[in-house]
Amino acid sequence: MASEHALGAVILAALVLYALSGGADYGGGMWDLLASGPRARRQREAIEHAIGPIWEANHVWLILVIVVVFSAFPPAFAAIMTALHIPMSALLVGIVLRGSAFIFRKYDSGDDVVHRRWSTLFGAASFFTPFVLGLCLGALASGDIRVIDGRLASGFFAGWTRPFAMACGLFALGLFAFLAATYLTVDTEAEPELQEDFRARALVSGLLLAPAALLTFLLAGTGAPVIFARLTSWWGPLLVAATSVSALGALVALWRRQFRWARAAAVTQVTLILIGWGLAQFPHLVVPDVTLMNAATVASTQHALLTALAVGAVVLFPAFAHLFYVFKRRPQPRASGRRAVAFGLLVVGVTAALMLASAGRAPQRAPEGCRGRIVIVRPLHGAAPLECVCEAGTLSACFSPGP
Amino acid sequence: MISDLAFARSQMALSLAFHIVFAAVGVGMPLLMAVAEGMHLRTREPVYLDLARRWANGTALLFAVGAVSGTVLSFELGLLWPGFMAFAGGIIGLPFALEGFAFFAEAIFLGIYLYGWDRVPAVAHWLAGIAVAVCGMLSAVFVVTVNAWMNTPTGFEMAGGRIVRIDALAAMTNPASLNQAVHMVLAAYVATAFVVAGVHAFFLLRHRHDAFHRRAFGIALAVAAVSVPLQAASGDALARMVAIRQPAKLAAMEGHYRTEAGAPLVIGGIPDDAARTTRYAIRIPRGLSLLAHHDPRAVVRGLDSIPRDEWPNTRIVHWAFDVMAGAGGVMLAVAGWAGWLWWRRRRVPDDPWLLRAVVVTGPLGLVAIEAGWIVTEVGRQPWIIQGVMRTSEAVTPMPGLVVPFVTFTLVYVFLSVILLYLLRRQFLATDPVRQSAGHGQ
Fold this sequence. Notes:
heterodimer, A: two-stranded antiparallel ribbon, 14 helices, B: 441 residues, mainly alpha, 15 helices, globular
């Protein structure tokens, strides 16, 4: 695998982990705002208990995404941050208010009025922030952001103001809410009443997710044609089917109160959605002008980064696992829970392997159409030009021409 | 009419000024916590454990704000300075990635530390605290190397205005890295220790024999007394590096206009760019040559050796430098006084006048940090990368930057007000009078 692709895979993996951890924390905030019924306060406490020790560590996945994008693909970072200046600034305000409201509430819970005020801010920001995040990701996929000769050519409103991006925002909201409610059913095993509360919430949000997904998919037809074409190519239906099976599996498991299975299925579902989106967009960072190849920095930096990431992963994953072990373990872990997790990992792994195998052979479009059978592709910055074979307007095999 | 560039710079400056307080505390507090918990493990005195827990409470609050304000900065690099990031992202990416990992580890161990008092064994808990302190220190070091690179860029080759070769390791170990990193880490220790010592000195003035505040004051004072003299030495080394690598910055810091041998040290006064002199200043003959080159006859380059359009804002830089150096001098004096009393009496000094002095000088460390960052950032202007890229070339083409500037200013003001209120409550909760009058502890 080329180092550019490896770094792209790192970005996608970090996004998946952010969605699974940080995304669920957003969902927790949404359920905090929507806490209702006789056990509203206890629901809030369960949510606070679930995300308190881990939300800062979870948040670092987003920072990792940012850091890898700007170190490995500097021109892409510059283009994204310029084109999406407005929603990204809004995202930041949301992140700041959400994190501060959460911690302030913890330290300022003297009386109910103040507590409720912080809860409102925390919850509102938990809705707002992932919606804006969805807007931004939708904009990157839309193909509306144009970067020509390293300069932004499409203004500051392209992409993120379109219905497709809005649908992505809503979809992100629904996904995170569903994920959080499903996690919380496992977290509240010791309190059956609360568990039922969150089960109901997970079922409702899971069911609402289906129309949201369909809407996003249909809007992609005009709103993000490149992605849509990929999702309807031969491997697209396979992915959609695997995702749907996971989603159904999660709902059935919730219905039958097999909460650990439900959690594993929900994790699988979210992972598949993000992997599918990543593959549909591959090799673009910003559709259609910025790709992993043409935005990559020089090779030596890529290798240094990959080395640092590998070393960091070796050091950090055990520590991260330990954090979860300390705070998420139960007195007697049930065998079914472990089996559920193993099953989820297996499904994700097999699907990802299939997707990767197909995407490796997926045709790339030539940058400006092909003017011959052999074309030279120039990365934007530094790296050596590549020689590619061009077949019917798409690049099939690329290699370094050598000295 | 204020330009978008000015708003972009103001927003960045404000974000950095806000974040650095929490970053410094995030580096300094874990050290104090680890010392307190270590003392508990050694002496088995419960008061040390109480101390570590209370400090951890305050740290959790500040660390969370530091985490989100740090996220803001990582985005703002691209939102405000896309030209800089497109050019430099590949060169400074490595330390940023390492900083990300160090911060990640810090967040993980802090989670274990804050929420794991009863869930992990005592020694493991203490080790988690030490890991937080070490990771916090490392993340400060890594991120400062990026700023150092902007001051003394190395590790890349350019041809035709484009980068053709990058040595990320050489960029990370640029000439300013070590000096700046040491200076910042020590600054974080000094500032945190002084603030904490100040708070506990305040309570000691009311209750001279309160065991909790005596122990707390002792630990903070010890850290301050050790790190302040080291910081003076580190500042001297850094200034000599700046004299060689960034003569314009040094000249602006010192209000020094004319290149001369045996240059005087200019303290205070009003730098006047038009007249090319600093008016109403105190001048110490040969002082600048001595400080900058350790030789009273050495030639020190003045601003007259720099093209006029490459001068930084001399007034801001000179005054900020004097504030930083002045604050450092006062803290050095207080630390020396305390150390002398401590050494003579062989116990934590509690003279009322020393306690009052510590209360008054408590915030000086943070003042010095803010002033120091103003010196290094404003002093580098008009460059964003010294000698390579101007700040005006790096700014986003986005118009109307007044909007995000005002928005973020309001957010920061809001957060600061709330934080001060909450911290005040945290401090008051440790007041022995209130404790015995109220629910008791």
